[in-house]
Every structure is written in C-alpha cells, then in structure tokens.
Amino acid sequence: MATTTVTASVLFQIGTGRRRRVMTPRVPVSHRLRSTTIMSSSESYDRANEVKRFDESKVGVKGLVDSGITTIPPFFVHPPETLSDLKPQTRPGSGTEIIPVIDLSGADLGSNRRSDVVDEMRRAASTFGFFQIVNHGVPLEVLDRTMASMKGFHEQPTEVKARVYRRDIGTGVSYMSNVDLYHSKAASWRDTIQIRLGPKLADLDEIPEICRNEVIEWDREIKQLGERLMGLLCEGLGVENGRLKDMTCLEGRVVVAHYYPCCPQPDLTVGLAYHTDPGVLTVVQQDHVGGLQVKYGGGWLDVKPIPGALVINIGDLLQIISNEEYKSAEHRVLANSYHEPRVSMAVFCSPGNRDDVYGPMPELISPEKPAIYRQFTLTDFMTRFFKKELDCKSLTNYYKITHRKNGTNNDNM
Questions:
Q1: Which terminus of the chain has a smaller tally of CB atoms within 10 A, N or C?
Q2: What Gene Ontology terms describe what this protein does at the molecular function level (predicted)?
Q3: What Rg value do the Cα atoms of the chain yield, rounded?
Q4: From residue 343, how far is each of 94, 228, 255 by CA, in Å?
C-alpha cells in the first residue's frame, strides 16, 4: 500500500499522561513530537484530534517554533494543487516594481494634482485591485509604534496571550491561530489578534495593554485616511465624493495583526491561503520581510515592502457596489522562510449597519451597463463569508445576475 510519510506531528499532552516516542530533543512546552504515517487509502492520522489539541493548547504557531520543531505538523501541509503554485520568495527590493505606487501628496480637494491621482487610483483599482500609497499623511512614528506594539503582543508569553485566546470573532478582541482552523483543508503558518474598532470600539479593558493606546491612535488615523481614499475612489467612479461615506462604508472597522514565524518547511504550507477580502477596502501595513502576493494575469506578483508605504486593496463589496468598475483581487502570503518573524497589520473597512441593503450604485447602472449583481443585506453577505460556504471569488459570483439571451435575468436565488 502506498504511503505518504510526514515526519512530525504535534501531540499535545496537557494532563493526558500518555507516552509517545520523542523524535527531537525534549522541549519545555506542552506538546511533543512523534512520527506519523498517513495512509493514502486508510486514514490513520487523527487530524481532528490533533487540530483540537493544538487549539486547546493556545500556544499558536509561535509556540511550535519556540519548541524547536524542524518539521511542521501534518494539518499545516497544503494539498499538491496549492503547493505546485508556490513560487520561491525573493528578497524585498529585487526585480521590477509592478504593483502601482501612488503618491498622495498634493491630492487634496481643489489641488492641481487631484485629477491625476484620481486617474491613477481608478486604473489601479480596476486593473490590479491592489496598490500602494506613499505620502499618505499618517505619521511614520504612528506606523512604527503600532507595528511594534502588535509585534510585542505576539511575543509575550503564551499564558499572557491566552487571556484573549478565543474563536468567537464576534467579541471585541480575539487572539487565535487560523480563524478557519476547523474548517479549512489545511492550516496556515500564522497567529492572529483581531480588535474591533467600529462602529463601536472594543471595551478598553479587553484590548491588551501592550497595544491599547497604539490601536486607538491608529484608528484615528485610519478614519481620516479611509475617508480620503474613499473620496478619491468615488471620484474615479464619477459619483459624489462622499457617496461611500454616506453608505457607512467606513464605519465597520476591524484591525487584524498577523504574526508569521519562521517556518521550517515553507515549501509545504502558506502563511495565508489565497482569498479575496469581503469588505469595501483594506488598508495594510507590512514590515520589511515580504511575502504578500497578488494574483494578476494568471501569475502571482510580489507586493514588495516600501518603507512608510501602505497597501490598499479593493474588497468584494466594493466590486459589487461599483458594478464591477473596481475589482477585488485574489492575494496570499507565502510561508515565512527567513529567520525573523513577519508582521503585518490590516484594517478592514465595511459598512456599519448590517441590516442595510447593498448592491450596485444606481448611478452606475444604465441600459448599456445593467446591474451585474443583485441586492442583499450585509448580514447575509458576511454570514456566507464566515461560514466558508463559498471560496474566494465564489462569494461575488453568488450574487451575480446572469443575463439570459432573451433579456431576462436570473438572480441566482
């Protein structure tokens, strides 16, 4: 019988007393390593149990790395169709810059450069769905402080982080490894803290003290920057500057800080599986390590770190609202192969009222370009996203109207 051998699996033995052969030197954490053989026709590896033990240990991926593992647990190994598409990560700064970089200096209302910036942003949002911005007005010291505080959170002792370790993302603050740990085909090599910023900020006592002030300061900056970006994007669509703001598209905000430790087998897993973001707009700060990639033209492009820059990507909801004038883009993060962690921080901007109905803006619908998507509530939209009923672009495809040859519509219901 053909077998696939995985040389390491995590066995968490908190309070179990069971003995297993240790394949690596003993380490002072609550798990041990054992060799595991996965049978191709008869499953002998209890994936569900291993995932549960990992989750209940609350050590996260960083805890695995700190234990000294040299091979990753099998539930982190991605299927061949994913691994075959991975490309070696190159050092930041090498190669040709392709993802657009937009300079926001002098782009205020009434300025001479504004129309040029609007055109640049419209082209980037409709072609790539991704772009970087420089001279955006957020002080560099704010960026540095916030990033350092998030890195500091992840590098605290496990017992400190465990105080906010939970899988209920509806709470104000949650720390975990892989939000879809129990549902995905394979886990990804990262840990995450998520903090609700709006419509109502998480209770201050819930936000870890190590990053509390920095998160509040960052949110103030994001609200100003987000309003500015949405105004430019509205003008690119030919609608009123405040249209997206009036639709409350900036009120629902969540900050997510990912921590990607060095992976001992980066060719077998990913840092973040390919996906599109569900909301309106995402503002990302990445450090110097790199690894973020965007799908374009059938291949993957590196989004190379630029000191002080912020990465902006279009979400599925903005693709729908714009009647597909703007495009959300599939993106992913490679597993970190460097000897230092990668840290990134993203703010997801979405409407604040989940009972409101959304669909293409009426101003963007015409006989020449009818509505491409049907209407829906944000509650329905986000429920489908979090339940993982649909993957990647299937979320937008679900709400797409199919236009029949006789001119009638099928709303996919």
A1: C
A2: dioxygenase activity; metal ion binding
A3: 22
A4: 20, 26, 13
